[in-house]
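Quick log. Single chain, no ligands specified.
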Amino acid sequence: MSEKLNVTIGDKVIISSRFGGEKIGTVEKITSKGFIKVNNILFTDWGRERGGDTWSCSYIKQATPELIQQVEQTNFRKYVLNKLHSLQDIEYGQAVEINKILEGEY
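-> predicted structure:
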C-alpha cells in the first residue's frame, strides 16, 4: 500500500486475500488507534490485515464504483463456472446450447 486509507464507517472497501480472491466489505468501525474493522477483521490504516502472516494476509483498498462492478462481475463468473463444473447430469439439448455459447455462436 502506498498511502493511508481515508475511510469512514459505512464505506465500501475491496478485501483481497491470497486464497479468497476479492470481495466487497463495509467498514464497521475505526478504533481509537486507527485500526479499520471490516468483516470482523482489523486492518491497519495502510490496509494490511493486523496480525496476518506473510502467506495468508488480507488487504483492503478503497472501493470505487468501477472496482465494485469489476469484483462483482469476476465473482459472478467464478460462481457460474463453479456451477457448470459441478453439474452432474444435463440433457443433450442443454449441452448443445451450452456448447453454442462456449463456441461463441450466440
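The two ends are 42 Å apart (CA to CA).
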